[in-house]
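This part of the workshop introduces the protein records we will be handling. The question running through the whole workshop is how a given chain folds. To make this concrete, we reproduce a full record directly below:
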Amino acid sequence: MADLYWRGSSFGNIPASRVPSVLSLILYLFAIVACGGFGALVGWAVAGGIGLEGTPMALVAALVAMLVAAIAWVAGAALLSRRR
């Protein structure tokens, strides 16, 4: 029974062509770090720019950073999908 499950694929029922390569995973990780870093810089600049300090600054910076990082990720994915 298990032989039928594993046959024809490299990881269970996932087709072998759908398994990402190591280079692809490294590029995804780099993109995640780049978008997160960009979001963190923008969040810190916004929170500092409006004069916050301490815990309120950290909370606002984190919220803005998450929003900016998500928007950057979506924008990058949209640009890459247009090239295909």
